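lol so apparently i was supposed to do this last week
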Amino acid sequence: MDTTQFFDNLWADYMSMTPQANQISTMLRDRGENIINDHVAFRTVGLGAITLLNLERQILALGYSRLAPYSFEEKHLDAWSYIHPDPSQPKIFLSSFRPLCMSEASLKIMLRIILKINSETLDLSSPSLFWRGRPWDPISWDEYQILAADSEYLAWVAALGIRPNHFTVNINHLNTIDSVEQMLELVESIGLKVNESGGRVKGKGLLLEQGSTMASHMDVEFSDGVRSIPTCYYEFAKRHKGPDGELFQGFVTSSADKIFESTNENT
Ligand code: NI
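anyway here it is w/ nickel (II) ion bound
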């Protein structure tokens, strides 16, 4: 599989969970823009078959290499960013929840669902693992609440599985939009909510400035019925040149920390 097929499949899965992505990309295309993605992000937990080391094999197989590690102490996450030798390809950001930071109740739920994964529900030898959906039976609504009380991130993974969490428009490549704030105002003009946690534009004055929407909501199946929960959001990034004269390619932990909150329940 080449990277074009990989991202086409991811985009289709993301669109199925994120109606706002269609609204925003249509708005940009109507302005004559050609959308280039800065990065796509995934979430996982450090248990069983779905550890970061297991999942990243398919990213490396696509020709990506590790760029830099990140840790988010408050959110209990470790992450790696990955970069492709072809600079037109989006970067990939893969984060993972530390099992030692889970509450006993959360760990019990996560272990139960993750230990049921088998090669039929999750094919670790295929990049399709990133868009095939939740590789375990639905959890109950009570379990979702237990996980969400511990960490919104854990509840997201348990309810939705290994899926694209967000796509990120690269503002550097847009012709009619120059700043993250301008992009956020356009997003609001079509009726969507912006993540204001830590300020609208994260990393102002730093080498990477980012903003995002608040996640779409979707009806998701739980073992005891269907409920509407936050799914995915759309992110916007503008990169600046570092002292070496090259565009910064990394990520800024303090900004990403607040952007994780784009999937918090806000209604
Ligand atoms: Ni991101």
